[in-house]
Design the sequence.
């Protein structure tokens, strides 16, 4: 639980915590769009400054935010290596047989790593500052127009909320199973690749059984409380936009406009 922050909620009374969940969801979507629209380090720097400002206003420790990068560290390194060795360019820095590293490849690798880094950190801010219940209400409210075409909006929002909530629970369960297997003499750190893959099987089977058991218990608990989906269901807390959401919208508009202007008037990183 201490090593994984994605899916956990960090309780606080900060500016970001008090924002409407719909505002935070829209902010994340537009922030992701802005990060992908960025084509040079100037635009990425603007996105990074906005993230730092949001992180400061959220009250979440930077350690908790940085833990979320652990989940994509392998993907980050793998993508960086592929781009470093296979991205074409004109200025050759090092060459050996069929492997060539160019100056453009180095720039693009750093650029891509920063982009993925910002994307994961932005998503982590949302999950750390918004409860699963608030996320469910926000998603359901944003997708409300789809109800007119008989789309199960409430059920979809509930599934996403439960999935987010199960991430830290299953992570904690995985740690318990690993410790239990180590106490029985299991070795997960030595041996070749095939041996390590085989050692994972005693972890996956109990984990799957535990996941199905928890899902069954959750279903029974919902039935015992007469849960019937969105029919005749009311809300205890009504979502309302406030002045904080207006400030967030202005910041978001400024970010998007700045990234678009930088995309038009500045050169690309490659």
Sequence:
């Amino acid at each position: 639980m201490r090593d994984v922050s994605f899916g956990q909620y960090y309780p606080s009374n900060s500016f970001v915590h008090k924002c409407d969940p719909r505002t935070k969801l829209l902010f994340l979507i537009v922030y992701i769009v802005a990060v992908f629209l960025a084509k040079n380090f100037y635009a990425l720097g603007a996105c990074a400054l906005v993230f730092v400002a949001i992180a400061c206003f959220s009250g979440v420790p930077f350690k908790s935010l940085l833990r979320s990068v652990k989940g994509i560290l392998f993907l980050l390194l793998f993508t960086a290596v592929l781009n470093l060795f296979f991205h074409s360019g004109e200025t050759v820095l090092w060459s050996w047989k069929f492997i060539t590293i160019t100056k453009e490849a180095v720039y693009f690798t750093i650029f891509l790593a920063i982009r993925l880094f910002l994307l994961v950190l932005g998503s982590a801010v949302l999950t750390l500052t918004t409860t699963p219940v608030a996320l469910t209400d926000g998603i359901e409210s944003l997708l409300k127009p789809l109800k007119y075409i008989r789309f199960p909006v409430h059920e979809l929002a509930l599934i996403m909320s439960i999935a987010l909530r199960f991430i830290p629970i299953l992570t904690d369960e995985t740690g318990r199973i690993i410790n239990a297997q180590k106490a029985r003499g299991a070795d997960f750190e030595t041996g070749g690749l095939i041996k390590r893959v085989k050692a994972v099987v005693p972890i996956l089977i109990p984990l799957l059984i535990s996941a199905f058991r928890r899902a069954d218990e959750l279903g029974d608990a919902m039935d015992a409380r007469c849960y019937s989906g969105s029919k005749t269901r009311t809300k205890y807390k009504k979502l309302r936009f406030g002045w904080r959401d207006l400030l967030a919208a202005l910041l978001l508009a400024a970010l998007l406009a700045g990234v678009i202007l930088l995309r038009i008037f500045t050169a690309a990183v490659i």
The CA atoms of residues 7 and 165 lie 6 Å apart.
